[in-house]
Write a structure and sequence with these properties.
The protein has 217 residues and is of the alpha+beta class. The protein is 35% helix and 22% strand. The protein has helices at residues 3-14, 24-41, 92-98, 160-174, 178-202; strands at 47-54, 60-62, 67-76, 84-86, 88-90, 113-117, 120-124, 131-141.
Length: 217
């Protein structure tokens, strides 16, 4: 669905086809917001990996600029191999408790844990040697923003109707129609939940079966 089509649908359903109350600028901003919200609700979307070099005696590394949700970080098991081992992710409070004195620590070796703070990830122990592609990051990236009427939201077409509903929810909020806003937001969440369920089933080896019991006959 093109941006122009989303604008038309939102304005028509909201009842403001002339764009007096809901402007094109509003809708474009809502489309971009909706893409991020949908990815947050369905982490199977826009999954990517990135590698970063491990630097000898360096503890802090910059997270990718397009990162939305960080899933995990792995460290290369051997300098000449291609296998990676998962690092233990900790929130900042846990990291402080788990690795007392980590900031400025002298411990060197293969990292086993990490934490995220202020756009960086910090590892412990600190790498003792440089290692090309030493870290591998798994994450959901930020969707590409739409700008022009001819643009198409990056999410799969099946999610475009959910984008329309999110935009309508924001429009109803501007109009202080809280019931309308809550209804459209709930519909959007239901759509995403349904689509997420379809993806989840594709990753399973077996499908559910119904067993008929004797007492049911």
């Amino acid at each position: 669905m093109l941006v122009s089509e989303i604008k038309a649908r939102v304005k028509r359903q909201f009842g403001d086809e002339s764009g007096v109350q809901v402007t094109d600028t509003d809708i474009v901003r809502w489309i971009n917001d909706s893409q991020r919200e949908i990815v947050k609700r369905n982490e199977g979307l826009l999954e990517v990996t990135a590698v970063a070099n491990a630097v000898a005696n360096q503890q802090d590394y910059v997270l990718p600029a397009n990162l939305l949700i960080l899933k995990t970080i792995k460290y290369k098991e051997t300098p000449t191999g291609n296998s990676y081992v998962k690092l233990q992710g900790c929130n900042f409070v846990e990291f402080n408790e788990y690795v007392d004195g980590w900031d400025g620590a002298t411990d060197r070796g293969d990292p086993v844990s990490y934490t995220v703070f202020a756009g960086n990830y910090s590892v412990f122990p600190i790498p003792s040697a440089a290692l090309t592609a030493g870290f591998k990051l798994y994450y959901n990236r930020i969707p590409t923003d739409v700008i022009n009427d001819g643009d198409t939201p990056e999410l799969p077409t099946l999610y475009h109707e959910a984008i329309v509903k999110y935009c309508l929810a924001q429009a109803f909020e501007i109009d202080e129609d809280w019931d309308g806003a809550n209804l459209k937001l709930a519909q959007m969440e239901d759509d995403v939940k349904t689509l997420r369920g379809r993806v989840d089933w594709k990753t399973q080896d077996t499908y559910p079966t119904i067993t008929v019991r004797y007492e049911d006959l």
